[in-house]
Design a protein that fits this description.
Elements lengths: L6 H6 L11 H12 L5 H8 L3 H13 L12 H5 L2 E9 L4 H8 L5 E6 L6 E7 L2 H11 L5 E8 L13
Antiparallel strand pairs: 1-3, 1-4, 2-3
Helix pairs in contact: 3-4
């Protein structure tokens, strides 16, 4: 078996190795786990040409350091619900930003919520079942104290889809 290639290796190869929190073996383990979190330690050890104990120890250390935060199934939401994905930028009165963020975090259609810099203050990524559900969200849920304005962008297609939601 061949060691996995992934975008972590490509992104981190230009970094000074002494500055990285992981070495090349750890990076290969991370890439393999991102590709298949259910791979056994023995299979991984064979793939990387190291002992199973080494793989088990390295994974445990990365878990303890918080580099590996957990393991999850990647669900293709589009395969289940024909989702409409939207990015919504919001300009928010600064004294209301935490209140608005806390209210938005309770929304079941929210995938991510970011505090951003620039022309807008918050960016949320949402999945909706339909355009009318999106419109209802913008008209009613974003009609709260503190939101000055919002801009919504609907995703038409994905060249590189999000691994977590498949869109």
């Amino acid at each position: 078996m061949e060691a996995p290639k992934c975008n972590l290796i490509e992104r981190w190869k230009l970094l000074d190795k002494s500055m990285r929190p992981v070495d090349d073996l750890d990076l290969s383990i991370l890439c393999a786990l991102r590709e298949n979190a259910r791979i056994s330690n023995l299979e991984l050890a064979k793939m990387l040409g190291v002992s199973e104990a080494t793989v088990r120890r390295r994974i445990k250390i990365m878990e303890e350091k918080g580099i590996i935060r957990g393991y999850a199934a990647l669900v293709n939401c589009y395969g289940v619900e024909n989702s409409v994905k939207a990015f919504i930028y919001m300009k928010v009165d600064r004294k209301y930003i935490d209140k608005v963020a806390n209210a938005l975090m309770k929304e079941n259609r929210l995938v991510t919520l970011y505090r951003i810099l620039g022309d807008y203050d918050l960016l949320c990524e949402c999945l909706f079942l339909s355009m009318s559900e999106l419109q209802d969200f913008v008209d009613n849920r974003l009609n709260m104290d503190g939101i000055i304005s919002s801009v919504t962008h609907v995703v038409a297609s994905a060249y590189v889809p999000c691994e977590w939601v498949g869109i």
